[in-house]
Design a protein that fits this description.
Layout: E1 4-8, E2 15-18, H1 28-41, E3 43-46, H2 53-60, H3 75-78, E4 83-86, E5 120-127, E6 135-139, H4 140-145, H5 149-155, E7 159-162, H6 170-173, E8 181-184, E9 186-188, E10 195-197, E11 203-206, H7 211-225, E12 231-234, E13 241-245, E14 249-253, E15 265-271
Parallel strand pairs: 2-3
Antiparallel strand pairs: 1-2, 3-13, 4-15, 5-13, 5-15, 6-12, 6-14, 7-8, 7-11, 9-10
Bound molecules: fe (ii) ion.
Fe (ii) ion (FE2) is lined by residues 104, 108, 110, 251.
Length: 277
């Protein structure tokens, strides 16, 4: 049986691709179909994959250069090939960190505070709680398209200042030395030319606008962009590999399981992108 591309999962996007073992060498025709599905549906789910981190890295390399993980944590977590995202502390015990202002339970796009943020992220579900532990995606192309024309005119050309930890205030921001950088609030998708909102956690304020006014505008737009009709919740099954487009999606982990009790372990690979325009 060959590769099968299923129907779109939701208005917000998503598609399931089956009939392929990602641990095997990816032939050019399959790669082309995956890229096409990714462009059209923004996130792609491959169920039932059994991948070592090395194999996941080999698969991810089909889509570009792999970014090393710059964050803290144990050397094991920083392992560049495919790093570990989990709710475990250094002794391997589950812990609830969902209230942290820099947690991935807030809407964000990965590494938006970098000068060149990533094209895509992929997660492979290795250990899951008995239920819950979902990931939600919000389609920011739809969010932009649904804005009133007056708002589109008002925000055209604005630039968002991003800084790691901005949502936690200055004391959190001081924990790391990432300098603030700015990106367009309305970014153009390089593959389709469509416009999407670019914001979320780590978005601080708007360049050239009083800080509180810019932050309030960002909050208002985030609320708009994450309305239910623009959102899809992925319910993980062990072995799922999901790859998503950071250029037109916000995402967040959902705290819908007992994080202090159950383990949730994912392997993550991040593919380098281009400067947003
Ligand atoms: Fe993330």
């Amino acid at each position: 049986m060959g590769l099968v591309v299923g129907p779109r999962l939701s208005a917000a996007g998503g598609v399931v691709i089956s009939g392929i073992d990602l641990a095997e060498h990816l032939v050019p025709e399959a790669r082309a179909r995956i890229i096409e599905a990714f462009r059209d549906h923004h996130f792609v789910v491959f169920p039932g994959q059994a991948l070592t981190r090395e194999r996941q890295y080999q698969y991810a390399r089909n889509f570009g250069e792999i970014e090393p993980h710059g964050g803290g944590g144990s050397p094991d977590k920083r392992y560049a090939v495919a790093h570990v995202i989990s709710n475990l502390d250094k002794d391997g015990n589950p812990v609830d960190r969902s209230s942290s202002p820099v947690s991935n339970y807030r809407w964000h796009t990965d590494k938006s505070y970098h000068p060149v943020p990533p094209l895509l992220t992929m997660l492979h579900a290795v250990e899951l709680p008995p239920s819950g532990g979902d990931t939600e995606f919000a389609n920011t192309l739809m969010g932009y398209a649904a804005l009133p024309e007056e708002t589109k005119r008002r925000i055209a050309g604005l630039r968002v200042v991003f800084c790691w930890g901005a949502s936690g205030g200055k004391s959190i921001m001081a924990m790391r030395e990432d300098p603030p950088i700015d990106h367009p609030l309305v970014r153009t998708h390089p593959d389709t030319g469509n416009k999407a909102l670019y914001l979320g956690n780590h978005a601080w304020h708007i360049r050239g606008m009083p800080e509180s006014e810019g932050a309030a505008l960002l909050e208002e737009l985030l609320e708009h962009a994450t309305q239910r009709q623009f959102v899809y919740a992925h319910r993980w099954r062990k072995g799922d590999l999901v790859m998503w487009d950071n250029r037109c999606l916000l995402h967040r982990a959902v705290a819908n399981y007992d994080m202090g009790k159950y383990r949730r372990v994912m392997h993550r690979s991040v593919v380098r992108g281009t400067v947003p325009f």
